[in-house]
Amino acid sequence: MQSLNGIKSSRDKKDPLLDISRKIYLSYKTEVFRDDEEIEFYIINSISKYFNVPFSSVQVCGSAKTGLSFHKEKKFITCESDLDIAVISLELFNKFAESANEISKGYSDLSCFPLYRGNRTDKQFKWNFLKGFFYAEM
Description:
The chain is mainly α and 138 residues long. Helix content is 47%, strand content 12%. The protein has 6 helices and 6 strands; from the N terminus they run H-H-H-E-H-E-E-E-H-E-E-H. Helix 1 runs antiparallel to helix 2.
């Protein structure tokens, strides 16, 4: 797995984390689509069109990109593992932030945030929002 070798090499050389991230996520090929790049193109192109963002703003990340989940320490398994996608767009982020603010009436009505596994999601939303991202399961 090219990504894993790149991580180990960069770690051994004590490269900055930003450089390691750029190498893996913006330079290396996506591990799980290495033998079927047409599917990767179709997925990224579809997301790009759906959200009306540049193609380059859509990136495969997580275990699909590297072939291994570093948090769960297990390999990506097609049709079982999650396919994590990042859409990097300030315009889209602002659009969703404005929608959330409007729907929740300035965050005074938190009932619009669904329950997930029996827990309220408004706190998780706020935590992620302050870090600069939204999370959605599709």
